[in-house]
Structure formats: structure tokens, C-alpha cells
Amino acid sequence: MPGDETDWRPGDCWLAGGTVLFSRPQQGVRRLRDLTVLGWPSLAAADDEGRPGLDIAATCTVATLARYRPPARWPDLAEAIRRCCDAFLSSWKIWNVATVGGNLCAALPAGPMISLAAAFDARCDVRRLSGERRLVPVDAFVVEPGVAALQPGEYLRAIHLPERELTGRIAVRRASLHPLGRSAAFVTGHLDVESGRLRLTVTAATPRPVTVSVPAPTAAASLVDMVDAQVSAEGWHDDVHGLPAWRRHMTLRLVEQVRADLLGAAR
Amino acid sequence: MTPTVNGRPGAHLPAPGQCLRTYLRDNGWFGVKKGCDAGDCGACTVHVDGVPVHSCVFPAVRASGRAVTTIEGLARGNDLHPAQERFLAAQGFQCGYCTAGFVMTAAALDHAEGLADDRPHAFKGNLCRCTGYRSIEDALAGNSHVEHPATGNAVGSNVGAPAGRDVVTGAARFTFDVDLPDVTHLKVVRSPLPHARITRIDVTQALAVPGVLAVLTHRDAPDRRFSTALHEHFDDDPADTCVLDDVVRFVGQRVAVVVAETEAAAEEGVRRVRVTYEPLPAVTDVRAATASGAPLLHDDRPDNVAGELGGEVGDVVRGLAEADFVYEETYQTQRVQHMALETHGALGWIAPDGRVTIRASTQTPFLTRRRLAHVFDIPPERLRVVAGRVGGGFGGKQEMLVEDIVLLAVLATGRPARWELTREEQFVATTTRHPFTVRVRLGAKRDGTLTAMCLNVVADTGAYGNHGPAVLAHGCAESMAIYRCANKRVAGRTVYTNTMPAGAFRGYGLGQVMFAVESAIDEIAHGLGLDPVTVRRRNVVGPEDPLVTPIGHAEDLSIRSYGLDQCLDLVHGAVDGDTTGSDLPSGWRLGEGLAIGMIATGPPGGHHGRAAIRLTTNGRFQLDTGIAEFGNGSTTVHRQIAADVLATELDLIGIRQSDTDLVEHDTGAFASTGTVVGGLAVFRAATRLRQRLLTLAATCLDVGPDECELVLGAVRAGDREISLRALQEAADRVGDGVEASGHADGAERSVAFNVQWFRVAVDVVTGEIRILRSVHAADAGTVLNPVQCRGQVEGGVAQAVGTTLTENLLIDGNGRVTTSVVRDYRIPTFADAPRTEVLFADTADPLGPHAAKSMSESPFNPVAAALGNAVRDATGVRLTALPLTRDRVWARIRHVGSTTDGSDRA
Question: What is the helix, strand, coil percentage profile of chain B, to 5?
Fold first, then answer.
């Protein structure tokens, strides 16, 4: 049974869509415990214990998310979802199987669902077998490339996008080495229309999400400097999908563009 | 509950952890292909309850109780699905290994919102390595190319591939698409170290794994050294490799083989083999390998040199002194991999007659048999080597990388054995193109006349020699011979390093050297303020010129037909005044570039093609050839040639091929010989059979053979005729088969030419290069099947665009390949590959059948330089190292500084 709390053994492994798990040999895995049979509702736009917003089940497939039509009070969610889904290197056929939670748990720098969650300052709803719950900010959920903040037996139940965040304006820009390629730099911006607070999140160019938040729209140059300082402190990601110097160069350009997009949208 | 597959219940329950792909193949649905095993390539696409998924990453257990449709279940009886019809009509395939995935994806698009109109998105999860996607795009658009010519007019028309229907229905049988009862599975232990001596191998724990039958090490293998490279001349390549060695020279080298009842048991066995290594100092790049005092990879190869060449004609020092302008630069090419969609692999078994049969993914069944016989000291007639349809080759399968291990296992256990490489093994332990460093020096007079050509070439062959020396020699030959220049010099070395070996790959060294030479010619033009095409026209060989290289002249090679002038004219006519891209936003810089290439129409020293053809029942014919089909299209052309000679219809000719039992020794399908050598053998066989039929008919009709004419299904003499069936019966009565064979020896060679032109836009701020237009002119002699030949050109250009812009197999300082999955190794996708306009010169070559020339490797060769020249034109920056990915282009442009003579938009 997937949820049998008394029976977590060494070699057990949670299974969601399976597209990551089945894409490489899994040494040491003895038993797969299928979360998809638990029948969690994929998308729930409702109050959840006083936390209004959108809950996306970890087992929600990317295809289901991509088809979601959000209510009008969340002006930019549909476009953000579309842009993030398009950022997948993988095919729409994979989306039929791959899950939102699986992408977060894979914890790769270029995980588009990580970018999406970070854009809305989402909270990861992490459960223990006992049912105990903890909420983890998405930038803390991704520890380093390939490592998520899950203890043995813990699983991701859902990600929660808060109502206040969903009502904000969103801008998304990304860079890749190739047309429709894997993201090398991904910048999302969020503007809280009421307060004027601006939050930028960098993924793909960084080992894990890096967020810069300012209380009010700030000059492009200083925003760029803040992002540069913040990411440079943690280091620019280096792998075959882009040289670090180019990722930095592209990220900072994208920051300027995202800022301009947001201020344009707010007018 | 089992899945229902194509309306039938599965034979058994899925195993825990099994993916749907292996479940389906276990159930005999061989149309479902393994390409990448990681969800990236789409060759395994099936529908589950009508929803398309990649079955390699779909948990099989989840298909339980659901309806799975594979390519085999798409047609309704004999009525093909429209997607299948369209791929057949457009011939939207070459090797056909990816086709099922494309068809299944196309068939699902009707239900995918918005995707049908957005093909780059819809097909980003489907990779094709052969076509360059134009023919696939035509299939999706419903464009038809297949012609049905009248009897006797097959040659020169766009007839479809004989296997077309099998390809689009999933019935084509590739290497592993056969049931082999009682088969054992092989997995190998691979070296984790770049250089080490094996001091001990403890197999006890591995043998204790239930299902493990044997663990084979160097102590169980023949100790004869050989080359994995295969050529007609047995000793062309360095004999430095063992089946299993007690020294490992690269990370990934095979150390021991586990034979087991199941793949899982074999994998567990591999994990339990304990190998003790004594590490040896390693050199993982050419610089380290050639430093003084560098550790040697092979004791008998001083200075780590696998092969060396050098020579001079004229006096290069004088030539440089006479020059008004001298250009000198070093060019660097990277490791790239064939990435054929079907990995290397082989099956082996002992046939009832006691012979061992090896069924392999190979371009060279006969050479493989000969090599196996030599290594294992077995008479060749005790071995049979066959190839099914091969899922892509590109030169990578002109090499024996797995067959020896399979034979070793069969001989050890007496049981059938199978070894199919994983995609990761393909990346880390097969071969790549040789990385080349080319120092080029050219001198020219003010009018552009070359006064000196000087090359210093170093190729990295990796841990073993393989094709190394031959690739170096070929790379330096036609690339220098194409220019008339009184003073030429070359010095080249192929160097061993502790890395995965390099091997044969489309173009065989020419692409690497031409990148340097054709870039340098461009720089000569820039330096002298001349038009690059003018400089080329001034210096290229003419139809009467000898082919001169500094390393001697091949007696068997000359210009027997000449189309370079036409190719240059064709391209000029097509692109003159092109303004593509002038509407791009500011910041994009526009440029155009061109490069040329020449290639011999076959390998030096002969190449044997064999064919046999006979009359069978009901006026049908059976054509047997030695040549494998892996998307080369040779089989299509062979049938066209035979049909016309025998005045029959294509469908009346059955074909068997790539089997050492069928015909006498055939060198195989490489060096672009499928048409010019293989086709000639078919032509000769068919012509002999025709003569035999006429003679036989003359006797039966009691007329002279000259009065007889072969027509469809009969021989006619005046108003009398005798059917082929009656002729067959007449021959049977005298106990004489109606058959003939043909042989071509490739003893003489001509040359073919290619010209590639690109128009590009470069965003200097991001480093992005956009190909706005790609035009290619090819001198292929008489084109026997235009749409197919066009496909070879398009595929070659696309593959070269991948090499130039994106592909990069990386090896770290410890000799470990770091790009071991498809998603980390970017081959062109539907969105990346430019659609190339293909123009054919009108030439006729005296050597090939119907005056045809070869045209499959050579389109690759000028592409990198043409693109580099276009970028140079656009930005003023010369890019000297491949690949030209955005990050590297940006870094280089930034390094060089602001551009100088680039022309900004409009």
C-alpha cells in the first residue's frame, strides 16, 4: 500500500509518473510505491484550512496542468503555466505521464515546474508516512541539483500557490542554447499590484532557485546588480547546457526584460 | 490483469519495475523501438487508451487493464492509417528506425490541441538521425513523392524503398526484432579507470547470482590483437585491440562479460565482479600524450603515435615567400557521435548445421565474419554473419564493437546470446568522430592565386587505433587535391590518448580538414579584398587536372567526370541577390558563406560488390546482394537497376541482402559505395541474367538470340513469345537454374563534388546563429532516384549542422564521458535542422552504373566551413573551434571585441 506508514523499508521508492525514475537505472530500489493510485484531485482552487489559493497535487500530470483554465481573478497564471510547460525539453507526450511533483522532486536547475512554483512563491506540502505535514518554500525544497529536501519516507503531497501571489502580475523569460532546448537561464518576475513589491526568481542558471525581492519597482541597473550579487554568491550553474559566463550574461538581460515586461503590464 | 495490446490480451503480467516498451517487445510487438531508453527520442511511442506516451518511461503495470496500440495496431487490416499512408507517399524515412514513433505521434495529433499546426513543438520528442526532417515534414503535410514509372523506366524516377510498407507498419525487422528461444543475456563490466593493469578478477560472487551462467575475462578470450576497424584490406588498420585485455586504456573499456538467463541477473552479476586494478599514468588529451616522457598506451607504439604521414610537392617555403598574403590559423574540431537510433548490438546462436550465426547491427557482415574468423582462429565457413535492417550507421557500424563478445559467449556456453548496448554504453564506449587540430597556412598572390598550402594535422584516435591512420590520410587527401597549387606540404599524426576510441564517421576525416582549409580560403579572399567564390574558381582543379596531394597520388583515382563548375553556377543562380532576413530586428547581423568539397567515389585499393539474381516462379525474380540497408537507400536503387535491365516491374523483384550465405565476398556498405560498386554488381548480374533468358528463349523459339526481346513476363521474337514461366520450366527440364551473378571490384575511382551555401543571421548579443537559408549543389553524376538522393544530401547537411552548431561529446580530465544521455547531447531536432534546397549538377560518370556517382558522405564535408564563413561574413569574427553553440559564439565575439566589417541588418 502506498500509504502504509508502518512499512517503509530500505529500497522503497515513491513512484509518481515514472518518467524520471524509468529514465535511468535505479540501483538499490527494491520496491516502487505508487502515489498516483491515491487519487488526489489534480487541481484544487479553494480554501484549504484558511489558505486560499491553488493546490496542485504532486501527482497532477503536466498535461492536466497545461489544460487548466484558471479563474479570471488570477490574470497571469494561464500564461505562466503555458510558458513553463513549453520550457520542458521533454515532449508533450511525456507531459501525459510526468507529474508536477516529480519535476520538483527531480530538483534539476532547469525544472520548469520549479520555476513555476518559485514564480508564485509556492509552498511545498511535504508529508510523512504518519501524515505529519510541513510546508517548505520552493527555493528551500530544492537543495542542490538532483537533491530535494525530502527525508526517507517523506513525499511531496502538493504545491500551494497562495491567493495573494496568484492575483499578481507575472513575466517569464528564458534562454537556451537551442531552439526549444533545455533552459540555460530562466527568470520569472512577480509584481504585487497592490503593494508594488517586485520579486525576481532565477532558475536554470543557478543550482537552485535564487530570489531577489524589492518593496517597490527599482531601476533596472540596480535590480540587475542585486541579482548578479545574489547569484554570484551562490555560483552560476555549470554544465553542458551553457557556459556560466553566458548564463550570467543572459540572466541579467532577462532580468531587465522581465522588469520591463512587468512594469509595462502594470500600466 | 494484463494490458490489451492491439486488441489482444498480453501473454503475461508486467514485471515489477518493468517499462512498457520491454513488456511490449517481450510480447512480440517489435515495432516498438528502443532508441534512447530515457524518454527523449520518441522511437518507442505508443498509445495507451488513445493517449500517446513514450513507452520506455511508462510503468508497464500502469497499462494493466488498458488498451495499448502500437504501430502494428494502427492500420485497419490492409488499410493503412492516414499517417502511415503519408509517410509512405512522402518516403518520410531513411533507416526507418524512428518511423514508428513519428507515425504514432502524428496519428495522435488530431486529439492534441494546437499542436497539429506547430510541428516543431509537436515533434520535439521525436528524433530522426537520417533525414534532416524535410521528408518527414512533407509526410506530415501530405506531400507525395513516390512515382510509379512504367516498366523499364525505374532508373531516374522517384520510386519508393522496397521496405517502405514494412517500415511504416512496424513489420521491418531490425537487428533485435526476432525471437530467439532460450537466449542468454550479456552485460559487461567496464573499466572505471582511464589506464590500468588488471591484477585480479574475482568472479565468485558474480557466479553465485542465480541465473548467472558464466563470467568471461581476458583469460577466457583469444589473445590475438586486431583492429575493430574493418576494411577490404585486412591489415589497413592498427592491430592493437583484444577481445578482453589485461590492460585497460580508457574509461568504459570492457573488462569482463557476464552471461545470464536474464538481463537483471547479468546486471547483478556485473555489480558483483571484483576487479583489482593497478592504476597506470594516463594521458587524456593529445598535448599530454605527445609531451616528452608521456606514458605509453601501447608498448610497441613509440610517442603514442598510431599513424603518421607527411610529404611535400614543390617548395612551400618558396611558395610562402612568393605570396602577397599569408594566412595562418589553428582550427579545432570536437568529438561528435553517430547517434544512430539503433545502438550497436548482436545476437548469436549455433545453427542446426553446427555453424555459429551472428546477427548484428553492422554495415559489413562479410568483413565482420572474416575478422571474427581471424580473431577466434575459426575457418570462415564455420561462421555466418547476417544483418537485418540496420537502424542507422553513418560509419559507426563499419567496425566490430560487439560481435566478438557475442561469439565468445556463444562458444563458452553453447547457448544463444544477445547483447544490445544501452544508449549510455553507446555514448561512453563505442566510437566518435576523430577530434582534429589543424594548423593551416595558405599563401596567395594578389589576384588570389594560391602559392602555398601547408597543413599540420593532429588527430586524436583515443585508446585504440581503429580507423585512425586511414581517417587521417583520407582527411588530408581530397581536401588538398581540390586546389591546384604548386607548393603543398602536409604533416599529420594520429595520436593515442586514454579516451574512448574514435572511428569511422561520414566523411572520414574530410569534414575536419575542410573546416580548416575552406575557412582559410575564405580568409585569403578577405585578406586580399576578393570575392571568396572568385578565389575558389581561380584555384580549383579543372576536369583535366591531375589530383595532387603531398602524400602521393592514388593510381586508381582521377577526375572521370566533373561538375564543380556547375555546382558553383547552380548555387550562384539560386542565391544571387538573396535578401532573406532583411526584415529582422536590429542587432541581428546578416552574412553568407560558401564552401566546397571533393570526395573520391570509393575507398582506395578496391571494394567488392556482389549480387546474384535468379528467375523464380510466376515470372518473379530474386535479387541477392551483400549490402546492408541502413537508410543508405542502396536497396531501392538496386531494385530499380535490376527492374529496368530485366524489363520487369519493381514489385516482381524480391530482395535478400546482407548475409554471408547469399553471395560471395562483399566488402560492405561504406565509403559511399552502395550505388557505384554495389549497383554495378547488380547491373552486371541482371545483364547476365537477361542474356541467359534471351539465349534460352532463342533455343525454345528456335530463333537467333538477337531476334529476341525481353518484355514484361516474357521473351518476344517477332510475333511469337514465350513466358518467363515457360522458360523457367524449360530450364528446369535440363536441370539448369536461370540465374546469374555480378561482381564489381571498385578498382577505378572518380570524384564527386559538393558546394554548400548558407545565409545566416547572428545575434551578437546572445550568440545565436540562425540559418536563414541553406542551399546545396551536388555533383552525383546521373541521379538514379532523385528524391532519395536529395534525402541523402539533406540528411548529410543536417548531420553536419548538428556537428557545427550543437553536438559536443565531452570527456573530463579523468577520461570520463560526461554527456552520456541524449538530452545532454543535442542532435538536430525538427526545430533545429534547416531545410536545405538541393540542386544537382548534370554530369555523367563512366564508372558508375547508369553514369551515377556516390552521394551520401560528401554533403557533410563542406558544411562547417560554409557556416563559419557565413558567420565571419556577418560578424567579422572567425570562429575556429566547433561547435558554434550560443555560449561559445558569444564568448568568442566578446573576446575578439566589437565587430569590424560585419554588415548590420539592411
Answer: 30, 25, 45
Q: Residue B350 pairs with which residues in a beta bridge?
A: B356
pLDDT tens digits, one per residue of B385-421: 999 999 999 999 999 999 999 999 999 999 999 999 9
Of B765, B829, B886, the CB nearest to A180: B829
**Closest alpha carbon within chain A to B120:** A180
Strands B67-69 and B4-5, by their bridges, are parallel
Strand order in the sheet with B450-462: B305-313, B488-496, B450-462, B436-444, B325-332
B713: cell is 513476363
Task: Please state the φ and ψ torsions of residue A64, each to the nearest 5 degrees.
Answer: -65, -45
How many residues does the structure list for chain A? Answer: 267
Q: Could you give the ipTM of this predicted complex? A: 0.96
Which chain A residues are Cβ-neighbours of B109 within 8 angstroms?
none
Question: ∠ CA B368-B260-B265 to the nearest 5 degrees?
Answer: 130
| Record: contact B58-A22, CB cut-off 8 A | yes
- Cell readout for B457 is 594535422
Average pLDDT over chain B reads 96
How near does any CA of chain B get to the CA of A240, in Å?
Answer: 7
Q: What residue of B is the nearest CA neighbor of A92?
A: B122
Instruction: Say how many C-beta atoms besides its own lie within 10 A of residue A245's C-beta.
Output: 14
- Tell me which amino acid residue B404 is: D
- Determine, for residues A93 and B125 on separate chains, whether the beta-carbon distance falls below 8 Å: yes
Q: Which residue do the cell numbers 554530369 mark?
A: B843
Question: By C-alpha distance, which of B519, B723, B538, B638 is closest to B163?
Answer: B638
The DSSP annotation for B105-138 comes to HHHHGGGSTTTTT-HHHHTTT---SSS-SHHHHH
First to last CA, chain A: 53
Which residues on adjacent β-strands are paired with residue B611? B625, B742
Alpha-carbon gap, residue B400 to B398, rounded angstroms: 7
Q: How far apart are CA B521 and CA B554, in angstroms?
A: 25
The grid coordinates listed for B727 are: 522458360
Give the best residue of A65, A69, A92 to mutate against chain B (max B CB count within 10 A). A92
pLDDT in tens, B846-886: 999 999 999 999 999 999 999 999 999 999 999 999 999 99
The C-alpha of B832 sits at a distance from chain A's nearest C-alpha, in angstroms, of: 6
C-alpha cell at B869: 564563413
- pTM listed for this prediction: 0.97
C-alpha–C-alpha distance, residues B669 and B365, integer Å: 9
Q: Which of A62, A67, A93, A182 has the highest number of chain B CBs within 10 A, making it the mutation to test binding with B?
A: A93
3-state secondary structure chain A: CCCCCCCCCCCEEEECCCCCHHHCCCCCCCEEEEHHHHCCCCEEECCCCCCCEEEEECCCEHHHHHHCCCCCCCCCHHHHHHHHHHCCCCCHHHHCCCEHHHHHHHCCCCCHHHHHHHHCCCEEEEECCCCCEEEEEHHHHEEECCEECCCCCCEEEEEEEEHHHHCCEEEEEEEECCCCCCEEEEEEEEECCCCCCEEEEEECCCCCCEEEEECCCCCHHHHHHHHHHHHHHHCCCCECCECHHHHHHHHHHHHHHHHHHHHHHHC
Query: Searching chain B, which residue's CA lies closest to the CA of residue A93?
Result: B53
How does pLDDT run along chain A (267 residues), one tens digit per residue?
A: 455 666 889 999 999 999 999 999 888 899 999 999 999 999 998 765 678 999 999 999 999 999 999 999 999 999 999 999 999 999 999 999 999 999 999 999 999 999 999 999 999 999 998 889 999 999 999 999 999 999 999 999 999 999 999 999 999 999 999 999 999 999 999 999 999 999 999 999 999 999 999 998 889 999 999 999 999 998 999 999 999 999 999 999 999 999 999 998 766
Give, in degrees to the nearest 5, the angle at Cα B62 between B60 and B66: 100
Q: Does A248 touch chain B (CB under 8 A)?
A: no
